[in-house]
Backbone:
């Protein structure tokens, strides 16, 4: 594991300049390495560094706070989709080299689905598809609605003011993903604590890594117990697949951890969405008075909100590839920015404007290509249920403090409010 490299901008700049002539490929010399410090941003502000990189060109070079070296950053919509779907850019190859990255603790685990390429990636994803396709998601719709109704019942009974994050936006996604995963209700809180530690860079690498290992051990036991199961939840499907020899236990555990963590990202995404709505009365009033617009509006909000900090997982070019006139060489690390792609004016006219009537709206908030978020349809379902329940049952819902007093998470990989004080 590489330690966080010390920041010495002047020395690193000199080193870059000295070696540029020897290693520059077409387009590379015109792309200085940008140090992306990734500050904690409040509200729904778009990252100013990312905005600058987008203005400077469709391909840039970046160095993130952790890891080694620099990486290419691709921001144009069509280029992002190409890289995400092109087998010449490998996730699995990241295992063989250190890459500059945002978090100190996201060291790849061998066999984790996020770092597999087709056909192994396809084989593993196929095992849980029945739980996450449209049919599988619809299977849990009524149960999810019932769980949300109970949560909102308690909120109404306790009365205002309340922290919407603690009372609804956190417990609801936890309950839903644990239902989908087949995690017993008694274990939900433990899984939640592990997830929060994994999704934060503020506790240090050792704490986050330990939480990931503990969650992995938990799912190893649960999946092994369900070998031969005929259940429809994720761990039962994985247990059955392990029992049939279709996937290894290591692969099953890696996928289970990824899905569990991803399921709780809904908390922060929803927090940003409701913060935005509660600070934009015009948008909130339209959703209240025109419920038929909600599905399309949710898609537009998913496109617009800056749901993560910086970038996610990198890829490695396995061959020389040209992107928008820039030569990406074999062995180079490449990141795509789905946030930037969702603001590409060539695809989304006036991209900074929230337009509930936007059509088509081919946003890539759930990714693209083989690594498209497996829980994308489940996430949409949860957002729809949350908007319906909170807007219909709490017609006076509003912030209980000025917008600037809403605290946002620090050191989080997925952005969102720490608390969301509301009244009604």
Residues:
């Amino acid at each position: 594991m590489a330690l966080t490299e010390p920041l010495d901008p002047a020395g690193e700049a000199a080193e870059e300049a000295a070696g540029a002539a020897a290693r520059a490929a077409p387009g590379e010399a015109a792309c200085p390495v940008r140090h992306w410090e990734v500050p904690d941003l409040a509200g729904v502000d778009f990252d100013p560094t990312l905005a600058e990189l987008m203005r400077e060109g469709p391909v840039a070079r970046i160095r993130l706070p952790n890891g080694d070296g620099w990486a290419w950053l691709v921001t144009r919509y069509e280029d992002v989709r190409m890289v995400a779907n092109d087998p010449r850019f490998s996730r699995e190859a990241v295992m063989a080299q250190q890459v500059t990255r945002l978090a100190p603790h996201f060291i790849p685990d061998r066999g984790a689905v996020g770092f597999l390429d087709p056909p192994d990636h396809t084989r593993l994803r196929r095992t849980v598809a029945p739980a996450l396709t449209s049919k599988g998601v619809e299977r849990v719709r009524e149960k999810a609605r019932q769980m949300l109704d109970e949560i909102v019942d308690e909120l109404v009974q306790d009365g205002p003011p309340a922290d919407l994050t603690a009372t609804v936006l956190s417990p609801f996604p936890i309950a839903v993903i644990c239902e989908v995963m087949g995690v017993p209700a008694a274990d939900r809180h433990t899984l939640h604590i592990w997830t929060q530690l994994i999704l934060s860079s503020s506790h240090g690498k050792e704490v986050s890594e330990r939480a990931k290992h503990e969650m992995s051990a938990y799912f190893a036991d649960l999946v092994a117990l369900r070998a031969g199961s005929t259940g429809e939840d994720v761990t039962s499907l994985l247990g059955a697949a392990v029992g049939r020899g279709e996937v290894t236990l290591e692969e099953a555990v890696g996928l289970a951890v990824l899905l569990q963590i991803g399921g709780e990202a809904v908390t922060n995404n929803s927090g940003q969405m409701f913060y935005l709505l509660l600070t934009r009365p015009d948008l909130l009033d339209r959703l209240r008075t025109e419920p038929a617009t909600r599905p399309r509006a949710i898609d537009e909000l998913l496109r617009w909100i800056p749901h993560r900090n910086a970038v996610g997982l990198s890829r490695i070019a396995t061959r020389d590839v040209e992107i928008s006139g820039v030569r990406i060489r074999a062995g180079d690390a490449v990141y795509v920015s789905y946030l930037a792609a969702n603001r590409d004016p060539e695809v989304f006219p006036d991209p900074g404007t929230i337009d509930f009537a936007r059509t088509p709206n081919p946003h890539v908030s759930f990714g693209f290509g083989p690594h498209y978020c497996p829980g994308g349809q489940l996430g949409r379902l949860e957002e729809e249920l949350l908007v319906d329940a909170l807007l219909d049952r709490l017609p006076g819902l509003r912030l209980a403090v000025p917008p600037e007093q809403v605290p946002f998470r620090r050191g989080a990989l997925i952005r969102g409010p720490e608390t969301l004080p509301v009244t009604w």
The radius of gyration is 22 Å. Residues 249-279 form the longest helix (31 residues). The longest strand covers residues 59-63.
